[in-house]
User: What shape does this take?
Amino acid sequence: MKRFLVIAIMLTLALFAQADRVKVRLFSNVKLGALSVSFDLGSYNLYADGNQLLEDMAGEGRTVFLKVEGRRLVVSVNQDYYGSFASLHLEATDTACILCINPDGFKPRTYEGDLEVTVGADGKLRLINDVDFETYIAGVVQSEIYGSQTDIFRIQAIISRTWALRNMKKHAVDGYNFCDHVHCQAYLNRCIRPDIMMGAIESSGETLVDADGKLIDTPFHSNSGGQTANSEDVWRAALPYLRSVPDTFSYHMKQSDWTKTVSIDRWLSYFRKSHKIDTDNPDNLRELLHFEQAQRKAKLLGVPLTKIRTDFQLKSTFFSVSVDSTMMTVTLRGHGYGHGVGLSQEGTIRMVGLGFSYDSILRHYYTGAVLHHDPVAKAAFAPAYVAQLARIIEEDSNQQTRTLSKKDDWLGRLFRLRDREVREEIYVEEEQDNEQDWEYEW
Assistant: This one.
């Protein structure tokens, strides 16, 4: 019988072996007192307070249950109680490992990499995903943008990678790199879509830099409403690559337009009480009730529009005001969703659909920025990997009515493809008597 030792099967992405790992706090904006962890792919070792409790937990056979009691983690596996500990660590045994976090009262999420669990200062569970950097980026892309074309995901991957590399120490004082909420970048699941992963792969080694070769700040928002904003109109610094530009590509999209109606009394009282504006002054009254923004402005009677947006919970600062004297209301008719600085995601989706190249889209939204290509990172991707992922995408498109199971996850399918191809490539019939058994790392 033919038998071989397969060494790592090239480990999902060749780049991952060279990329740094990052630590991301999960469920950072909610308070969790209990959860369970199950295993969708591969196997995990379980450590508590640095000591190994269990080895090679895999599949549906075992579930780890965690809850907080006092300042300790109470750990059970299936029906077996293991004790209370200060920390818990679930260690992936190889690259193709997926765990599922099932928190009480919230939707489950799946992640790759390791999971570190402690009790935070607030007495709740503190979850840290220790994961390969590019795996994190792919998860961010899936969480941050919608669409179906590869270049959409490539663009989001470039700006998300640039932001992450520039902000690696954002939560250093807390013991991790990023949180999973909009304070950093949304990271609400591992990347489960092969087309999104393909876009992330094609962006490998690509970042945005300024004329001096330094990573730029790459803010993005849902929809500009037809014109992006200058950075200094939203934040303090005026950055040369974050200039207001016309953006008709953001018209007629999901988040293009909005309206909000408030009473005249509430509207005028806000400016009178909060900002000491004389609303009896005819000129002030006219401006407050008939404010217009054919082009983006930064202030209304000296009041920052960002402040008004926050206080009235508006979708954007790009709005105009009209009055209904009969109903005694003012209507804010606005455009776009988000702060308006940098890249408009829905504008990007439209531009990709119209055939604009991914690099020209980036130049449109980040004035004067340069797309940097890291040849080392780019060369790290084996062409066979991309070909195999493309094969999976094609199979899915040809079987859209088929219900996929956990065993159909693209990562597991990729490893099975690699496994078969490696066996075929190295098979030499006359040498079979001297070969050893197949052994699998996962």
